[in-house]
Amino acid sequence: MKESRRKYLQFLNPLELLQTKKVLKNNPTIISEKVNTTESIISLYQYDSEHLDCKQSLKTQEVTSSLFKNEHYYWLNLDILNKLSVETIGDNLNIHPLIIEDILSIHQRPKVDEFDEYFTCVLQMLYYKEDQHTIENEQVSFVLGKNYVISFQDDSHRDLFDPIRERIRISYSKIRTQGSDYLLYAMLDSIVDHYFIVLEKVGEQIEKLEEEITKNQEDSYTMNRINNLRKELIFFKRNTSPVRELIGNILRSEYGTFNERNRKYFKDIYDHMVQIIELTENYRDVLSNIRDLYLSQTNLKLNEIMKFLAIVTTLLAPATVIGGIFGMNFDRIPYLHHQNGFWIATFFMIAVPVLMLFYFNRKKWF
Quick one: which of 73, 272, 77 has its CA closest to 175? Predict the structure, then answer.
């Protein structure tokens, strides 16, 4: 009950209504753990160039360091971040508690960490939600050892690694012969390549919006759509920009598991991230230009309306003046009692605005 009251009482502060997102969600000093009571789904691929063994639905207690002792390569994947399961696996594999904390924390900034026996990295997978035109993120964490890769992700239904599973079933494929660091490259490459797809979807929305504004087909929600796209681009940039630094740290790493012949593949990912960041900046500039164009067109329409109203007011001014003069309460006004006084006044009320129209038209004021 107290939590419910606190939830709604916070909005009594008017400044809260101005915040588009809660600051606490991105505060690095506050640990926001992913609390999930659903049992984790654990799968293990054990392979070399000729043989492949796939185990599904492993128990948490079965994941120990003895799994990775023989001369094979391993990919251990955990879906659904159950806190107890992750902590148990971390204890069994001697993974540092700070790494376990990073895995369980949400909204983690992409980062890498090096230890004596393993290398870890955390980044965000991004998805574009078509029905709401929004970008969603899912944190994924990797632990790279001498002959294994462990991946942690929370969504068991949405996965970018199915093509890798298909490739790993092919004997003598690169992923089966190039070592565990190549497997890490393949997964990072899948995530980064999907960034292009998400950015392309955002670009389509920007182009559609630009076309509508150019053709004067915008509606009352156009400004909201521009602001929403701007927020999605900011969200996208915040989650992707640090990935370039992450890949750069891998390229500079002296961790022994990274084979020199495979570093060129990570360099390719780095080049892709440079392209993504440049595209994001370009889209941001285009969106700023669209916003300026929309505001310019809105101001132009307002100016046209004000121009029309000013002309109408000016044309009615002579009639107002003539009517005001002859409507004064004086006993002696010229033509006040003239038999054609009404028609004379009406003539001038019409003639003067007509002459003004000709004058305005000659001056090209409309």
Answer: 73
- Tens of pLDDT, residues 293-331: 888 888 888 888 898 888 888 888 888 888 888 777 777
Report field, pTM of the whole predicted structure over 0.90: no
Quick one: average pLDDT of 24-49? Answer: 69
Distance of CA 120 to the CA centre of its chain: 25
State the Cα–Cα distance between residues 89 and 83, nearest whole angstrom: 10
Give the strand pairing for 148-153 and 73-79.
Answer: parallel
CATH class of the region 20-297? alpha beta
AA letter at 303: N
Q: What share of the chain has pLDDT > 90, as a percent?
A: 40
Instruction: Count other C-beta atoms under 10 Å from residue 335's C-beta.
Output: 12
SS3 string, 65-108, reads HHHHCCCCEEEEEEECCCHHHHHHHHHHCCCCHHHHHHHHECCC
Helix (H) or strand (E) holding 241: helix 222-252
- The residue extents of the domains of the chain are 20-297, 328-362
